Amino acid sequence: MKRKNQGFTLAELLIVVAIIAVLVAISIPIFTSQLEKSREAVDAANIRAQYAEVMTEALMTKTDVDYSAKAISLKQLKSDWEGGSSSEFYTSLSRLGDIDGTPQVGGTAWVEYKMTPTSSGNNIIIHYTAGSGGSGSGGTGTGSGGTTPTTPALPLQAEGGLQDPGGNNTSWEDLLSDGILVEHPPYHGKQELLGVATGKTIAGTLVIKEAITNIGQYAFKNQSGLTGVVFSNKTEVIARSAFEGTNIDTLSIPSSVTTVADRAFANMSKLENVTWYYNPDTELGPMVDVFKGSGTNSSTGKVNITFHGTEAQWNDVKGKIGLTESQYVLTRVDP
């Protein structure tokens, strides 16, 4: 008895081809959109990194001149943002300052610090221009017609000091001699800042003196008047609960830091932006609940973390920051 082998009919093959075509037609736009979002994420991360550079320049030098960083080339292949002004990247960047223009294919972007705030009260403007000839040429500008700055310059990093909310500066030496800050005598080439003396308070932005390598345990815990801190590139250790409970809203952790101990920046309710230049030699052992309870009163209820490090390094760190994935927005920048 002969067995008759039957294959697929032409109609069945056409149906399969049609189904595949429909699936491809659905998936390609989704894939393209997600790919474009990844390019936007890279551009946003580069702009945040430039924002940190510009703010550091403004804080550590003078605020009586304008400053703009060099223009960066955009990666995205579509003009505007995916989702327009409702895009998560537009929203996150608009919290840094005013946005001038929209991303353009083959265009550039740069961050500018303006000594005189804009009409919306911001000192930062993020510029977008078409083509590669943007005017973000870098360097310090000439000021704005000799206008008296609204905020005096912060103390120099080498000397350190405190700028109070009224714009008055107190030198590091005066903070020590007045018994407000306490240092540990230098040992083995290290110098530790023990913190605020018992019964004393500080308010404003503290510029850590360049000679300080270690920030001691509980150094500024619950100093609610402390609204800003500028670390030097010689800071190595930020000990347990060093800034817990302060009202700092923006942090930049330099690559010189190799120890960030447990709860170092915990319960900082106003903390909104963290730029972390991760050091591969960072000790992971002491790192527990670093930001636990922070960001609850930020504008979004989350902490925006720009992490300069590899994916493997972030995977080592993310379980130690004390925040769930719903409590922070991550932008990772390859070193």
User: What is the element string, with H for helices and E for strands?
Assistant: HEEHEEEEEHEEEEEEEEEEHE
Residues in β-strands, percent: 15-25%
Unreliable residue runs: 132-151
Q: What gyration radius follows from the Cα positions, in whole Å?
A: 25 Å
How large is the count of helical segments?
A: 4
Largest sheet: 5 strands, mixed
Q: Pairing-aware structural class of the strands and helices?
A: alpha/beta
For the record, give the distance between the C-alpha atoms at the N and C termini, rounded to a whole number.
Answer: 73 Å
Record field, number of beta strands: 18
Summed over residues and divided by their number, the pLDDT gives a mean of 84
Residues in helices, as a percent range: 10-25%
Shape: elongated
Task: Detail the topology: elements first, then pairings.
Layout: H1 10-60, E1 67-68, E2 72-73, H2 88-94, E3 98-100, E4 108-113, E5 124-129, E6 161-163, E7 169-171, H3 172-177, E8 181-183, E9 192-196, E10 204-207, E11 214-215, E12 226-230, E13 237-238, E14 250-253, E15 259-260, E16 273-277, E17 303-308, H4 311-317, E18 328-333
Parallel strand pairs: 3-5, 9-11, 10-12, 11-13, 13-15, 14-16, 16-17, 17-18
Antiparallel strand pairs: 1-4, 2-4, 4-5, 6-7, 6-10, 8-9
Q: Could you explain the architecture of this structure?
A:
The chain is of the alpha/beta class and 335 residues long. 21% of the residues lie in helices and 21% in strands. The chain has four helices and 18 strands. The strands form four sheets. Strands 1, 2, 3, 4 and 5 form a five-stranded mixed sheet that branches. It has a five-stranded mixed sheet with strand order 8-9-11-13-15. A four-stranded mixed sheet has the order 7-6-10-12. Helix 4 (311-317) links the parallel strand 17 (303-308) and strand 18. The radius of gyration is 25 Å and the shape is elongated.
